[in-house]
Structure prediction request, 482 residues.
Amino acid sequence: MNYNWDWGVLIREPYFEWLVSGFLWTISVSVAAWILAFSLGSVVGIARTTNSKLLRGIGTCYVETFRNIPLLVQMFLWYFVFPELLPEDAGMWVKRELPMPEFTTAVVCLGLYTASRVAEQVRAGIEAIGQGQRNAGLAMGLTPAQVYRYVLLPVSYRIIVPPLTSEFLTIFKNSSLALTIGVLETTAQARQIEEYTFQGFEAFTAATLLYIIVTSTVMLLMKLIEGRLRIPGMISLGAK
Amino acid sequence: MIELKNVSKWYDEFQVLNDCSTQVAKGEVVVVCGPSGSGKSTLIKCVNGLEAFQKGEIYVDGTSVGDAGTNLPQLRSHIGMVFQNFELFPHISVTENIKLAQLKVLGRSDDESQQNAARLLERVGLSDQADKHPAQLSGGQQQRVAIARALAMDPVAMLFDEPTSALDPEMINEVLDVMVELATDGMTMMVVTHEMGFARRVADRVIFMDEGRIEEDCSKEEFFNSERGERAQIFLSKILEH
Prediction:
């Protein structure tokens, strides 16, 4: 292979700044989308475990819609199609005045998609606990909302720390799809460096390393958190 | 105290309770027995509204359980319930289990709840386990904590749903002892159990259920000493043999 290796390109102006800036966008998109996904996913997941047929129905519709459309298609739908479907004024506003339109769209798209996956984890966590705990809470006079707050959720979130970690790693990697609507995140910047310098190997190696550093850090952190939250005397929470 | 009038319940087409009527007076101990699937657990769960029923009426302390306007959490807060699988909350300590509903339902202060928890743990003989988590206790100890947790609400009546069925044999007595003590203290109790020894010792009445129907409802003397219906005889001969 005839290739001129030049690792120095990674620390040269302006490419180093590009990588840094791309990395920061990756983090921003991922974290913002995760906050949305976690909050909305929790609400939808809880809704699917309530006694209300209406709430369960809405939750099921949400999950089935968002998790069954490819993420890339959703990205394009939000960016190109959604503004056209709005009433004219609102559509105009989205197209012209939405602050940081690419970033915002990417966050909304990634957040709503991942929420459907988080919802399934939350639902599974609550269902793993079983009717007995719910009954015990109700029998002592707690309201259904209090049963969730004090009995079901504290245990179910502990059960789902591992799959939620996995979801966060996925949202972080999926954030690279934001480049398709123009967010200059890590992958986009690596590609741009390749286009300017023809040093594609170096650029994408750098990008890969950045992703791996973050995912490994998150994994370590979550292991620590999982250990902290461990319930004394319990080997496996889900096994009960 | 507890009054059931012609209660019937269906799961879709399948009838699990068929026209059940009985009552538990204040201070009375009533044992409910019968073969598995006879509806006894369902019946006791109807009393505090954990299971809905489609026909009939249930009154606890004058309040109608089936009435849509009834504040169920409030009603349940003064009926204690103990479950087959203990159902302590695994993520909080034994003391916190006993404090939770006192704080969140009765609005008691932290100090008062703490004192109650300590007093009740002493009563069930588990003061030394106060700071442990439920999974660190044996089954018998967990069930005694569950009883203490129910008592912390100062209930007017206690419901027991097969409280010893999930226990290893050597732990059954420590739980029954606590229940006997409660019964002698005058607690109103409705107990689903197969422990006929317990029934003989403290029950005032015995209810025998089969196929969703109350087949026998009589004093324990009548139940154990006189000729009962055929189904009750068969049931008794099966569980008393051992």
Remarks:
- Chain B touches chain A through 34 residues (CB under 8 Å).
- The longest helix of chain B spans residues 169-184.
- The first strand of chain B starts at residue 2 and ends at 11.
- Strands of chain B lie at 2-11, 14-24, 29-33, 55-60, 63-64, 79-82, 157-161, 188-192, 205-210, 213-219.
